[in-house]
Amino acid sequence: MIEFQGVGYGYGGRRLFSGLSMSLAPGSFHFLTGPSGAGKTTLLKLCYAELRAPEGRVTLWGQDARAMDRDAVAMARRRIGVVHQETQFLDHLPVAENILLPLTVAGRLAEGHGNLRELLAWVGLASQAGQLPPELSGGERQRAALARAVITSPEVILADEPTGNLDWEMSQRLLTLLVELNRMGKAVLIATHDLNLIRAAKQQVGARILRLRDGRLQAAGADL
Ligand SMILES: Nc1ncnc2c1ncn2[C@@H]1O[C@H](COP(=O)(O)OP(=O)(O)OP(=O)(O)O)[C@@H](O)[C@H]1O
Q1: In the chain, how many domains are there?
Q2: Are residues 143 and 190 in the same domain?
Q3: Residue 180: inside a domain, yes or no?
């Protein structure tokens, strides 16, 4: 679905990484780890064509990202759910409406109401649906962010440090939700520093671990 072939990227003439190759296939589960500043968020942005690679090739469902126009990018993004590092909500709208927002924007709101109640229960936010985002705890915010990322039934979930500020119990809960999504057939890629989270996931799912370091992407495994 998403493929990188020899991809390089940098900002302002400073090369961040090069020669990156990877493939996100249906049903795969990947962790992306590496030191702060290695380029994990950048790599995720290349996955959803927020950035275009000047070097190598990123293909989204067989299409070269560089050749995609705005409509093609919008179509591809409907198949990708992103949980951002800093989750932004519209603070004046209730949690339920925030979760429905991607469907509202896509003019597909009618599809959402059937799923919403089930989705809220699944992420454990059934009783917070009418609250405003500033009233949520950190863990509740991240679960709302995950619900918003999956409301469109994407095929790929990209999560950037989804457990960043969460305690261990809440991190586990979020991880379990991501593993469940993977069991439903979705490809999942989680960027994280949290090696304990990766170790915990290894008990639940056959995850591949990619490490971005010194401008290269390596497979990591037994040493984690
Ligand atoms: N828009 C930008 N303009 C210039 N430099 C940028 C930009 N975005 C990121 N960078 C730089 O690129 C490097 C990689 O950033 P990125 O956010 O991809 O790393 P990361 O591995 O996700 O880091 P962290 O784990 O701390 O979130 C950093 O040095 C960052 O300062």
Answers
A1: 2
A2: no
A3: yes
What pLDDT digit, counting tens, does each position of 96-105 carry? 999 999 888 8
Q: Determine if ligand 1 sits within 6 Å of the CB of residue 37.
A: yes
Query: Distance (Å, rounded) from C-alpha 82 to C-alpha 95?
Result: 17
The DSSP symbol for 188 reads E
pLDDT over 80 (residue 110) = no
Tens-place pLDDT, residues 169-186: 888 888 888 898 899 999
Query: Considering the chain, what is the average pLDDT of its residues?
Result: 90
Q: What is the pLDDT of residue 152?
A: 86
Count of H-run helices and E-run strands, the chain:
7, 10
85 occurs within a structural domain: no
Query: Which ligand 1 atom sits closest to the C-alpha of 193?
Result: 25
Residue 144 in any domain: the answer is: yes
> Are 5 and 69 contained in the same domain?
yes
Does this model's pTM top 0.90? My answer is yes
158 and 47 in contact (C-beta within 8 Å)?
A: yes
Which amino acid residue places its CA nearest to atom 13 of ligand 1? 37
User: Same domain for 74 and 171?
Assistant: yes
Does residue 86 form part of some domain? no
Structure ipTM: 0.96
Q: Whose CA is nearest to atom 7 of ligand 1?
A: 11
Q: Which domain holds residue 63?
A: 1-79+154-224
Count of CB atoms situated within 10 Å of the CB of 83: 24
